[in-house]
Write a structure and sequence with these properties.
Layout (H helix, E strand, L loop, with lengths): L1 H18 L18 E4 L2 E3 L8 E5 L2 E5 L7 H10 L7 E5 L5 H4 L2 H8 L2 E5 L3 H5 L22 E3 L4 E4 L2 E7 L8 E8 L4 E7 L19 H14 L4 E4 L7 H4 L14 H21 L1
Parallel strand pairs: 4-5, 5-6, 6-7, 11-12
Antiparallel strand pairs: 1-2, 2-3, 3-4, 8-9, 9-10, 10-11
InterPro entries: Metallo-B-lactamas (IPR001279), NDM-1-like (IPR050855), RibonucZ/Hydroxyglut_hydro (IPR036866)
Protein name: Subclass B3 metallo-beta-lactamase
Organism: Pedobacter miscanthi
Length: 286
């Protein structure tokens, strides 16, 4: 009996911790639905779910994973990486476009399994550390994902370098305080490409911006992000959600390698225009 009590006490913090992590009940099914991994362009691969975009960037010195989807997606991502012919444990760097449960859900587990270094926009570090509890829009008493402590804090335009690949982090706040995009160059057998993984600044709260004391600069931050995103130049753009860049119209499982399908400046501009219109309407209502 004494041994059992000691064993329970050792595990008790784990049980309490697990009970305090809960994803929202209304999480869309397509966020966890499987999707066949594929090569997008050069050394950039899609390894996410049907709608939650996760990207593997390969290099001779190890690989980089951007976003992980929900907590249940860790195994799926591992299988997708293997299906492409890469080793899961070769992931050396972990990144995210925003500190929300739909992009960080499996990050703590993948970090533990691979030993990779977690790098995050410094403005999202605290929210990530408490598992989303202090998020101005989605926060609450319980964490929505397992907390993660960053190994490196990133500032606007900081480079992330590995094996000859250099990724520039671009601070695009509003959706979260540390939402960010990533810009990199890659090449294939025919040409080189500038790739943008954009964090589109959608609005996630019904509250008036003036009624969010936890984020007093939110309106200004959104305005900055729209301005910055509209000025960027690139050949190919991707985003945090497959639906945001019309992945399923541009690619079907089994399609041949076709980077040109993602060369869509018009779609990018239209998406930004629609999101900014929503933002301006919200500002006008205040």
């Amino acid at each position: 009996m004494k041994v059992n009590i000691i064993f329970f006490l050792l595990l008790f913090p784990f049980f309490v911790f697990s009970q305090n992590v809960r994803e929202p009940a209304d999480t869309p099914k397509e966020w966890s639905a499987s999707y066949a991994p594929f090569r997008i362009v050069g050394n950039v691969y899609y390894v996410g779910t049907y709608d939650l975009a996760c990207y593997l960037i390969t290099t001779p010195k190890g690989n980089i994973l951007i976003n992980t989807g929900l907590a249940s997606s860790a195994t799926q991502i591992e299988k997708n990486v293997a299906a492409l012919g890469f080793k899961f444990k070769d992931i050396k760097i972990l990144l995210t476009t925003q500190a929300h449960y739909d992009h960080l859900g499996a990050m703590a587990e993948i970090k533990k399994l691979t030993g990779a270094k977690m790098m995050v926009d410094e403005k999202d570090a605290q929210v990530m550390k408490d598992g989303g509890r202090t998020d101005y829009a989605l926060g609450g008493k319980e964490s929505s994902y397992t907390p993660i402590v960053a190994d490196r804090l990133l500032k606007d335009k900081d480079p992330i370098q590995l094996g000859g690949t250099s990724i520039t982090m671009l601070h695009h706040p509003g959706h979260t305080k540390g939402s960010c995009s990533f810009l990199l160059k890659t090449k294939d057998e025919k040409r080189s490409y500038k790739v943008l993984i954009a964090n589109m600044p959608s609005i996630v709260t019904d509250k008036k911006f003036s009624d969010i004391p936890a984020y007093p600069t939110i309106s200004k931050d959104y305005a900055y992000s729209f301005s910055s995103l509209k000025k960027l130049s690139f050949d190919i753009w991707l985003s945090s959600h497959a639906s945001q860049f019309n992945l399923h119209e541009k690619h079907k499982p089994g399609d041949a390698y076709n980077p040109a399908a993602f060369m869509d400046r018009k779609g990018y501009d239209e998406t930004l225009k629609n999101l900014e219109a929503t933002y301006l309407k919200k500002i006008a209502a205040e």
